[in-house]
Amino acid sequence: MTRFELQRNFLKSNFVEFKKIRTDKMNGLPKPSSIKAYEPESTIVPLPEVTENVVKKHDIYHLIKNRRSTRFYSQESLTLEELSYLLWATQGISGSTKTGLTLRTVPCSGATHTFETYLFIMRVDGIPQGIYRYLPIEHQLLFMFQLDEIDNKLDAITLEQPFVPNFAKKAAVAFAWSTTPYRSEWKYDVSAHKKILIDIGHVSQNLYLASESINAGACAIGIYDQKMVDEILQLDGEEEFVLFLAAVGRKRK
User: Fold this and answer.
1) In this structure, are residues 131 and 147 in contact, taking their beta carbons and an 8 Å threshold?
2) Could you tell me the CA-to-CA distances from 53 to 50, 156, 211 in Å, in that order?
3) Are the CB atoms for 207 and 216 separated by under 8 Å?
4) How far apart are CA 225 and CA 237, in angstroms?
5) Closest among 245, 110, 113, 124 to 191, alpha carbons compared
6) pLDDT of residue 1
7) Whole-angstrom distance, CA of residue 228 vs CA of residue 192
8) 95 by DSSP, 3-state: which?
9) d(CA 237, CA 226)
10) Could you give the CA distance from residue 121 to residue 105 in angstroms, rounded to a whole number?
């Protein structure tokens, strides 16, 4: 039982301990940016405006009831309008507070927004295969680079899937969410990490429901090669690293 103790304690509320800590915010350290910078000359892909017209199923009851982890995909591409909608549904900005904090389509502890959304795009109409990053403020895609044999690289990252081996490489697109923990640590110190894990669950569930609403399917991926995916996405693995992945594609009939 003792080998579980540390992780079980991590799951519990540590509010009493947190009250004894002076956070970096309390100590007057500058707030970290909630948006990752990029070079002005970067290649930007505009995304279509999100409207309800892309949604094919509007009944939230049946969306929740019919949601399943989908691991069998057709070779049909997603449209750019559908990808735009999925990105908006998972990290899109829906408003802001009087103090300038962004409000997203998913809950986030203290509006700390530690996540960045990277995409392995295999089959999206009008978009070359490659690695992209979502820019939520602008609602645009940042093209990062082409990746030879992108489907096989994704397969290598997500090996040893217990139910359907090699399913991720057959998706139209794979989401890889990274976290920059200090965005939350600045405000919540040792309480940050539990909050980050709770927050990514909200993101994943929105992807499931949004995918179901456009007759596509999603499957979250918690088994992956940490070092490999961080290296492919050019992350340092310490200050920023991948936290969760998900595959999305049109359901195979």
Assistant:
1) yes
2) 8, 36, 14
3) no
4) 12
5) 110
6) 58
7) 25
8) strand
9) 8
10) 22
Q: How many CB atoms lie within 10 A of CB 65?
A: 10
- pLDDT of 213 reads 98
Predicted TM-score of the model (pTM): 0.96
Place of tokens 């794979």: 174
Cβ neighbourhood burial of 221 (10 Å; 0-12, 13-18, 19+) = buried
Within the chain, residue ranges assigned H as helices are: 2-11, 15-19, 60-66, 80-91, 150-157, 182-188, 192-213, 226-232
pLDDT along the chain (253 residues), means of 10: 84 88 96 92 96 96 96 97 98 88 91 97 97 97 98 96 94 98 96 96 98 98 97 98 98 90
Q: Could you give the domains of the chain?
A: 41-250 (3.40.109.10)
As given in the structure block, the two tokens for residue 191 are 């309480």
Contact between residue 173 and residue 120 where contact means Cβ atoms under 8 Å apart:
yes
* Residue 189 · residue 24 · CB < 8 Å: yes
Contact 131, 84 (CB under 8 A): no
Amino acid identity, position 18: F
173, 119 contact by CB (below 8 A): yes
- pLDDT for res 218: 98
Q: Check if the beta carbon of residue 45 is closer than 8 Å to that of residue 130.
A: no
| Tokens, residue 235 | 């992350």
